[in-house]
Amino acid sequence: MEIVFLAFILMLSIFLGFELINKVPATLHTPLMSGSNAISGITLVGALTSAGAEHTVLATILGTAAVAMATINVIGGYMVTDRMLAMFKKKGGSK
Question: What are the structural domain ranges in the chain?
Answer without folding.
Answer: 29-86
